[in-house]
Design brief:
Length: 133
């Protein structure tokens, strides 16, 4: 409780304020569901999906080999989505050899931070061509 007193031209006014605690409990982000390492082929369509909770709602960032993946407008083969309140998805519409890397998702809020990392292993296209001897 705070008492504020103001005096102006021989008139005194008192204000009493009460400051309530924030009823919302802060909780560090935590994974409800993580993604794991994947072995895929060139041309596959894949999704790295995780489920994260926390209070306040965490900010989520994706990384490839430690470098942040930014949303790109225009033509691209990787997309970042948030589905509902807790699902976060990194989608590869067409996997290439350049996508072979370590991928991480980091969730942060005022109460803390969590990270999930996995390796995406991309195998080259296989040819059905067989050499006849």
């Amino acid at each position: 409780m705070v008492l504020l007193q103001c005096t102006h031209n021989c008139l005194t006014t008192a204000f009493i304020f009460s400051v309530a605690d924030n009823p919302t409990e802060q909780r560090a982000p935590e994974f409800i569901k993580k993604f794991s390492d994947l072995d895929v082929n060139v041309g596959d369509r894949i999704r790295l999906r995780c489920k994260i909770k926390g209070q306040p709602q965490p900010r989520v960032s994706w990384y490839k080999d430690g470098k942040r993946i930014m949303k790109i407008f225009g033509i691209y083969f990787i997309s970042i989505e948030k589905i509902g309140n807790r699902d976060y998805v990194l989608t590869f519409d067409y996997v290439t050899l350049d996508d072979d890397a370590e991928y991480s998702v980091v969730a942060r809020n005022i109460a803390g931070e969590v990270k999930c990392t996995s390796q995406l292993i991309v195998e080259p296209e296989t040819s059905d061509f067989r050499e006849l001897l």
